[in-house]
């Protein structure tokens, strides 16, 4: 999420305009401090169920008066389950990058909610993806990434080909009604766009590149391609963070960048020209751009570049392209109050040997991530506080965030 800059000109914010009439906001803010402890709503435990919670957000309220969804959306276990079913276990989802599975035998593992996957390139060079679960007693089959000629289960040794077929079931002789051909790995739809690998748990979807592009990026795909989001960059490294917050808190923070960066990331803000930020909203993608930002080189270190682009791909994938760099942020939900965020860094190939430049850039980036982790965990604790559920303002500067909430509402209503 790096430099998640959002929307317009931050300097135009008028504090008084940030006082919308909200269905969650008590008419008199003072009353917030007067109610008795026994009347406090505990947002972690909902007695009304996920579908009702969905209905508590009204996407038709105009942006000028919009507020965020109620805190139960960020804390309630049943709401989290609904999200997995309706958001993450449907549609195309970012999973990895093509460089991980460039050659036959290369594989990587990934997860999404409770679902575990392994993606590989088989001996014929075909891209394959499966649930990473042994068909015997459900052990995870593969871990991490690397290169293999087959997958051997670490538990009892059942062995699968890279095409998912069960090749060997250990000591199964004599077991009645066992048909080895019926116990291959369960496949998952896989596709690529540019440097990214995508998965889809729905079985009856077309993985044709054009169709996937349309569904995943909509009309934003051309703009991304034309602004350097492509396969020409080299992979540098991965960093991942386990964060004690709901996955949406991290996404909100990304989409709120233009509002919080000048205050919470002063070091980063000093290298940006926030007067030249714009946000464009596409179907499921929000693109924030900085034209004419800082061109100053600080000690030969130009991390931000004079052009920067930050794309949020609904529901949980971010692509940041700035100077010679691209980093992606994949936000994986791990529970109502926990997520993992995977940062993958890519750079123009000509700079791959410039270790000093890379090290300094990464150090600067990591400083921002640490600040964001602290902010997100602080928000989650606030959301879980019984006194909280009074609504949060969504000032107009955060139209990217509001669009995200409206998309969530639409998905969850289905
Ligand atoms: S669980 Fe995989 S071989 Fe038994």
UniProtKB/TrEMBL annotation:
Catalysed reactions listed for this entry: choline + 2 reduced [2Fe-2S]-[ferredoxin] + O2 + 2 H(+) = betaine aldehyde hydrate + 2 oxidized [2Fe-2S]-[ferredoxin] + H2O
Matches recorded under SUPFAM superfamilies: Bet v1-like, ISP domain
GO CC terms in record: chloroplast stroma
Gene3D superfamilies, sorted: Naphthalene 1,2-dioxygenase Alpha Subunit, Chain A, domain 1 (3.90.380.10), Rieske [2Fe-2S] iron-sulphur domain (2.102.10.10)
CDD domains named among the record's database cross-references: RHO_alpha_C_CMO-like (cd08883)
EC class: oxidoreductase
Cofactor(s) named in the record: Fe cation; [2Fe-2S] cluster
Predominant place of localization: plastid
Domain Rieske: 92-199
Keywords, in A-Z order: 2Fe-2S, Iron, Iron-sulfur, Metal-binding, Monooxygenase, Oxidoreductase, Transit peptide
One of the record's GO molecular function terms: 2 iron, 2 sulfur cluster binding
Pathway it works in: Amine and polyamine biosynthesis; betaine biosynthesis via choline pathway; betaine aldehyde from choline (monooxygenase route): step 1/1
Subcellular location: Plastid, Chloroplast stroma
PANTHER family, per database record: CHOLINE MONOOXYGENASE, CHLOROPLASTIC
Similarity section: Belongs to the choline monooxygenase family.
Protein known as: Choline monooxygenase, chloroplastic
Gene responsible for this protein: LOC110758439
């Amino acid at each position: 999420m790096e430099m998640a800059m959002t929307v317009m000109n931050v300097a135009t914010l008028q504090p008084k305009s940030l006082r919308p009439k909200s269905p969650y906001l008590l008419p008199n803010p003072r009353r917030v401090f007067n109610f008795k402890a026994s009347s406090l709503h505990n947002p972690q435990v909902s007695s009304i169920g996920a579908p009702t919670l969905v209905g508590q957000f009204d996407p038709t309220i105009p942006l000028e008066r919009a507020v965020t969804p109620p805190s139960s959306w960020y804390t309630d276990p049943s709401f989290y389950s609904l999200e997995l079913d309706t958001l993450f276990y449907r549609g195309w989802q970012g999973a990895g990058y093509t460089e991980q599975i460039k050659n036959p035998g290369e594989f990587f593992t990934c997860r999404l909610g409770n679902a575990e996957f392994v993606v590989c390139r088989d001996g014929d060079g075909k891209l394959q993806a499966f649930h990473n679960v042994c068909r015997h007693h459900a052990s995870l089959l593969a871990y991490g990434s690397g290169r293999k000629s087959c997958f051997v289960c670490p538990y009892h040794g059942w062995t699968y080909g890279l095409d998912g077929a069960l090749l060997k079931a250990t000591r199964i002789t004599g077991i009645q009604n066992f048909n080895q051909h019926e116990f291959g790995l369960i496949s998952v739809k896989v596709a690529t766009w540019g440097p990214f690998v995508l998965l889809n748990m729905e079985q009856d979807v077309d993985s044709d590149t054009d169709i996937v592009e349309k569904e995943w990026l909509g009309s934003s795909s051309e703009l991304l391609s034309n602004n350097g989001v492509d396969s020409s960059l080299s992979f540098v490294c991965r960093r991942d963070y386990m964060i004690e917050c709901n996955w949406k808190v991290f996404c909100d923070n990304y989409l709120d960048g233009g509002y919080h960066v000048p205050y919470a990331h002063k070091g980063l803000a000093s290298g940006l020209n926030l007067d030249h930020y714009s946000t464009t909203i596409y179907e499921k993608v929000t693109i924030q751009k900085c034209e004419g930002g800082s061109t100053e080189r600080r000690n030969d270190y130009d991390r931000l570049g004079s052009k920067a682009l930050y794309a949020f791909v609904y529901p949980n994938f971010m692509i940041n392209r700035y100077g010679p760099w691209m980093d992606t942020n994949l936000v994986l939900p791990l529970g109502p109050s926990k997520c993992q965020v995977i940062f993958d860094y890519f750079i123009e190939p000509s700079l791959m040997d410039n270790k000093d430049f890379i090290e300094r850039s990464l150090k600067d980036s990591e400083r921002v991530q640490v600040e964001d982790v602290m902010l997100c965990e602080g928000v989650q604790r606030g959301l879980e506080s019984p006194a909280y559920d009074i609504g949060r303002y969504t000032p107009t500067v955060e139209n990217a965030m509001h669009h995200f909430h409206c998309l969530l509402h639409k998905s969850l209503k289905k």
